[in-house]
Amino acid sequence: MQTFATAILLVHLAIVAFNVGGLIVVPVGAALHWHWVRGFWWRLLHLLSLFVVAAQALFGRACFLTLWQFAAEHGAAADEPPPLIATWINRLLYWPLPHGVFVAAYLAVFAYTVALWVWVRPTRATDPPITTR
Q1: Which residues, in sequence order, are CB contacts of 57 under 8 Å at separation 6+?
Q2: Which of 16, 108, 110, 112 is most solvent-facing, going by the fewest CB within 10 Å?
Q3: Residue pLDDT tens, the chain, 133 long
């Protein structure tokens, strides 16, 4: 069961990396004229992912991955300690701060993501290329 909890934790870490990475890569890629940062589907997935994070925080709901991980960890045998890497990742992902801090941060990050959607417009394959002068 601990292996399942660690797998959930790694998926959670990958999603966090995708969300945070997108916040950095989109403006940097736009400045460097990387066309792939305007890809419509990955940008939409990024926007929706951060919407879900912000909505869960706003409504006081824990992330479903956190709940699944918690359930798997508590279903594990008491003598089965979590792997060391899982302990490190847990420290990276779960900060002991008041809920209101997370709500404000996630709403600000979502607002930034919406601003990026406007500032660095995503394009579909059928759209004409964006040129800058």
Answers
A1: 99, 102, 103, 106, 107
A2: 108
A3: 678 888 998 998 999 999 999 999 999 999 999 999 999 999 999 999 999 999 998 998 888 888 888 888 877 655 666 666 667 677 777 767 788 888 999 999 999 999 999 999 999 877 666 665 5
Distance, in Å, from the CA atom of 104 to the CA atom of 133, rounded to the nearest integer, reads: 37
| Single-letter code of the amino acid located at 113 | T
> Measured between alpha carbons, how far is 94 from 13 in angstroms, rounded to an integer?
11
| Cβ–Cβ under 8 Å, residues 16 and 46 | no
Q: Helix or strand or coil: residue 39?
A: strand
Could you tell me which of 127, 123, 126, 133 has the C-alpha nearest to residue 35? 123
- At 39, phi and psi to the nearest 5? -60, 125
